[in-house]
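Review this today:
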Amino acid sequence: MNIRAAILWEQRQPLSVEAAELDSPGPGEVLVELKAAGVCHSDLHPARGDWPVKTPVVLGHEGAGIVREIGPSVTTVQPGDHVVLCWAPACGVCPQCRDGRAVLCDRLEKVTYRNKLPSGAMRLHARGRDIAPFLGTACFSDRVVVPAEGVIPVPNDLPFDALATLGCAVLTGVGAVTNAAKVPAGARVAVIGAGGVGLNVVQGAAIAGCDQIIAIDVRPAPLAIATQFGATHTIEAAPDVPAAVRDLTSGRGVDYVFDTVGNPATLTAAVASTRKGGTVVLTGLSRGDTQAAFPLFQFVMQEKRLIGSVYGSGQPTRDIPRLIGLFREGRLKLRELVARRYALDGVNDALTALAASDGARGVITWSS
């Protein structure tokens, strides 16, 4: 079928919105008409050349839409179902899946992180060439073919623009609090970076009942939004972040620091901002060759912990319905995450706005 897609033909060049051809779904696959797609830093990094990626590729990995066609053997969804896309479709049988750690599924390294479908088929084509689907999703296009494990049914009465970020930013941020760190009520938390993931760490901490939630960023706009999501204190562009955190915590530091930026400076600041016995949770993705350093002696003598968290450290098929329940209860903000809306033709503007880091998220929407 004929569709329109935003294709990255060459890194560091604008995406080209143009006609493309999409094949019907094969066995175990589903065709979804996209209604909304979030614009994430994980899309910006390959577009700007921060991460190596084989082109041509259609970016986009946060999406929500309607199932229009199912391939043979698919029984989990039917045409007409509303779904949220999950870019980490678990195989269900590897040791990590059996241990309940679906986001660490062994299959992801073989297909998803290589921008392939589990079947190995290439369903998207343009200019006589096969086009790779970024993280197996390719949400910057009218329609996509994804594995059945990569769609999670949701109620039909929920707004698509709110659902778009649920499949990555919300799941990643809230899950880092609830699944990775298991933050208890009454804890003191700091969040470095108040972007899409950071805002969801903030509201995850608020949902967990934390007493103190400190949002840290170099710009005032994201911090203003963070207060709406539950931040009790903010720190803007402090020359010494650990000292500023200690000033707000009677000199002790916080129980948990979430580094959603992921560069050497922010990780060093995060470790120094935790109290004795405190925990640093790293969710921010940097270049693959980035190295960081912090004082080992103090790290050992103060029994601090450093853990990584990817995609909410849980099971998306379980966690996304739970998050929808929190949204229905009024405890999880989704609509408020969307600050800017674009048509597909505005995808390059959306990426530029994201790079400017003005706060909250941009979402591409389809009206028809």
Remarks:
- The first strand starts at residue 2 and ends at 8.
- The first helix runs from residue 41 to 48.
